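Archive entry. Fields below.
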Amino acid sequence: MTIDVGTPILQAPPAEGARDQHMVLNMGPQHPSTHGVLRLVLEIDGEIIVRLYPEIGYLHTGIEKTCEAKFYQQVVPLTDRVDYLGPMANNLCYCLAVEKLLGLEIPERAQWIRVLLTELTRLNSHLIWLGTHAMDIGALTVFLYTFREREEILRIFEAVSGQRMMTSYFRIGGLSMEPPLDLFDRIQTFIKTFPEKIDEYSNLLTGNPIFRNRLMGVGYLSPQDAIALAVTGPTMRASGVDFDLRRDMPYSSYEKFQFKVPVSDRCDCWGRYEVRLEEMRQSVGIIQQALDGMPGGSIKADAPKVVLPDREKMKTQMEALIHHFKIVTEGFNVPAGEVYQGIESGHGQMGYYVISDGTAKPYRVHMRYPGFASLQALETMCKGRMLADVVAVIGSIDIVLGEIDR
Amino acid sequence: MAEAPTETLSGKQAVLEKLPDHPALKAILAWNADALTDALFDRGELTLTVAPESICEAAATVLAAGYNAFEDMTAVDWLPSEPRFQVSYHILSHQYKERIRLRAWVDGADPSIESITSVWPGANYYEREVFDLFGIRFDGHPNLRRILMPEDWVGHPLRKDYPVEGYR
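PREDICTED_STRUCTURE:
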C-alpha cells in the first residue's frame, strides 16, 4: 500500500528550462518574503510555476552535533535558538524528553506554568506569522498592530526569565525559578484585552478584498498530500486533518484543559489563516484556565541529583552545596535508552529524539521541526500557480529557517 | 493503547507475550515474522527492529495497519560497534493516537538502506538529511544529494569520528 500524491515532488533542481520558453528564476536567499534565508529555484513559464525547488542549509549551525558535546542541562539554552520565535516550546519539548528518560515526576504547578507559557509562546509565534504574512500580501498595517501585542508578550517573558527571546526558562525537572509575584496579574490583564485585538486584526484582514483574493483558493494541499508529505500543525488542520497532539496525545497535563481544535477543510491559504486565528482564541482560553486553576506547590521535581537546589539551601546546607557543585561541574547521569517526545508547537508537531548511553552527555539529540517537512509540500502547493502566489504560500505555511536548518 | 504496560519489555518474546493485540505488531507478524529481528517496549514507546533489506515493506505494512503519518526519521552512529548505524523511523497513527518506532541496523562499510520515499514521500528531506550528515545512502531515493551542508563538503558531520569543531 502506498499513498498517492497528486504531483511527483522534489526532483533535482532545475538547471535550465525544460522547454525554450521556460525561464529559471532564483528567489532568495536574501528575499524579504522568504522569512529568513530560504532560496527557491523556480522554473517558470511566463508567470506560471512549472517547478519549484527549495534550497536550504544557509542557517545550518550543527546544533545537533553541539548537543552531543554538552551536559544535558547545557542543551536547554541551545534549544531556544532553533525555533527562535517559540523559545518556550523548544525548552518544553527537550525537557519533557529528558524527563521521560530519567522517569521524573514534575510537580503540577510546574506543569501548569509550562502550559501557560507555552500557550503564550504560541500567541507570540502566531502574531509574528500574522504580521509578516499580511505584510507579504501588502497589508503593512497589521504588522505594526501584531508587534504591539507581541511586545507585551516579550515583556512578560522578560519578567519571568530575564530574557525577551532566548528564555531558557524551563529546566530538566521543572522551572528555573518561581515566577515573579505580579506575573499572573500581568498575563490576566493582557489576556483580558487580547480577544479584542484578534477581532481588530480580523477586521483589518478578513473583509479585505485584496487579502481575500490573494489567499482564497491559493496553495491547495489535499489532506492525503498533507499526511504523505509529513506536513503537521495548523497547515495540516487547514487541510481537514483533525489531529492535535495537545488533545490526542496530551503531555504536561494538557488533558486537564478544555479547548477546541480548529479544523478547516478549505485546504488553501485562507483555511490556514482562519485556523491560526481561531487557534489564538483557543490559546487565550487555555491561558485563562491555567490562570484560574493554577495549583500551588513546588516548581521543581524532588530529585536533588538532577535539579539544582534553591540558592538559600545551597548556601546553608552542606548536602545541597555538594549536589549543586556536582550538577554544575559533572552534570548528572541519565539512564541509557532512547525516547521520542512530540509536542504541538506554534508551527506544528515538534519532536525531540534523545538517546542516552548512560553518561552525563546525550549520545544523540535529533530535533524534528515542522517547517522542515512543510517545505517539502511547497512545490505541490505552488505548481501551476502564479509567481506572486509563491509569496502567499510561503507566508501561509509559517516557516522559520532557524528550525529548518538547525 | 489503554492497557499499555508500565515496565520495560525487552526482546521479541517478552513484547509478543504482553502486547499480542498491538495493531502494528500483529500486522508485521502477519506479513513476515522473520523480518522482525527484535522488539522493545521501553518508557511507553514500542520499538520494532526490522531487517534493513525489508524496511520499505515493513513501512508499507504498518501504513496499512493504520500507522498513517510518517513523523520523523534519523540515524545514530554507534562507532566502534558493528553494525555501526541505527536508522530510526517514528511513525504516528492518527487513528490509534500512538507512535511506534521502526529501527534498522546498517553496516559501517558502505552503509546503505532502502528508501521509504515510495511509501511516504515526506521522508524525502529526512533521508537527504541522514545522507548528508551520516553518509548513509538510500537506494531508490529520487534526489539523493546534500541538503544542509554545502554540495562540495567533505565528510559527514554527525558521524562520531568527525570532530565537534570540524577538521582544521
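CURATOR_NOTE: The domain at 63-303+334-405 of chain A is CATH 1.10.645.10 (Cytochrome-c3 Hydrogenase; chain B).
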